[in-house]
Design brief:
alpha+beta, Beta-Lactamase, Heat Shock Protein 90, 3 domains, seven-stranded mixed sheet, four-stranded antiparallel sheet, 11 strands
Length: 479
Amino acid sequence: MRSALEHPWRDGLATLAMLGAIIALGAFEVAGLSLTGTALLLTLPVLFAASRGDALYGAIVAILASAVFNFFLLPPRFTFHIDGAIYLVTFLVFVVVALVTGVTTSGLRLREREAAAQAAQSDLESAFLAEMALAASREDLDARALAFLAGHFGPPRLFRAEDLQAGTTGLAPLDASAAVWALEHEAVTGHASAIMPAADFRFFAFGRAARDVLALPVAGPQDIAEGAFLARLARAWGQARDHLDMLAQRQRGEEAEARERTRRALLSALGHDFRTPLTVLKEGLARMEGAQAAELGEEVERLRRLGEDLLASARLDAGLALACEPVDLVDIFGELERQFPPARRKVALAMELAADLPLVRAEPVMLLHLLGNVLDNGLRHAAARLTVSARATGGGVAVRVADDGPGIPGALAASVFEPFVSGGHDARAARGGSGLGLAIARDLAEAMGARLSLESSGAGEGAVFLLRLPAMAMRGDGA
């Protein structure tokens, strides 16, 4: 309850004026006013005083009203002598009325103040949320929130978890401990809170996984209710941060996806556009004779393979499923011999197929492209001979491609399947490749459920690549 009037002089004079007027009316019996009527009228200033102040102030006015009523109106007049119990009852009625009215009005006034405070907080929270909604980025959001809070609660500060742990915030030990507690427990700590109330700042967490904490200086009396309100603002700030972070992450993902789509479309277009002019060049060079024509033919073939690599890369990046089917490696090896005739290579090419090979599960065109890339790599690096062999293994077929070149240095062996890493055997051979062949071969193998690996690559030992293909059925099984 309150212990003072909002307007003491004005309300006090009004109360005295009402008392004086009623006593005067009763003293001169205006309009035949009796003592009983005067006593009833005296309840009006008591009610007025209790409603404007509190129960205590109303009781004081009730005592004053009883005193003046007794002094001026009750016989013997102009004395405080009480003649009869009825006048004691009147006094008690005044006091009871004052107390009841004061308590009731104080409760109503308290609820009115609470409602007004809640309405003010609601308006302030709405304004805060509206300001947050204007933010276009995380940095803009923090700047707007700090400026808003500074205009209503004093200059706020943000403390990062790293600085708190390192002790570089400049906070007093108690405040630093309160800040860490708020960050770790997502709670309100510091001044006027349940945790470390003696601190000079009040600290608010932004929510789960936040890496900083909000601190507000103590600018005046701050109670628990205000702390809860500020905690709501901090949580709203943290949720706005999370929302903007999510939007930024989604935007980055969409931009990355758009760039990837552009890259795939470019690769696909380049691959398709290579085919027609290269076919014309190849047919024209076939009608020419001489070493220059043969050399140009090799370059055209290299461009053709590059185009095929781009098409395969675009297809894999697009996530298109490969339609695997039973494939006979005899047919694949025959096609490889036609792709790499003696005129196109400077070393011997030996094909060794076991007689009991089962059919393998693969897409014929992609398997041919895969092995063509591995063979092309081996022919460029072999010194005199490249051997391709295939034998049945448990549940599949192992295709082995071994050259007798200088081998792959150990430092390069781990990255030989990475894009744009040319074989690395020697500088001359590396210039003949695009750096995509082995990378695309490995990706094609994985897309077909196979596995391509570098089996041996010691310096001076040549390079051995091993392709493990899953079997479909044995010959003669009717598959």
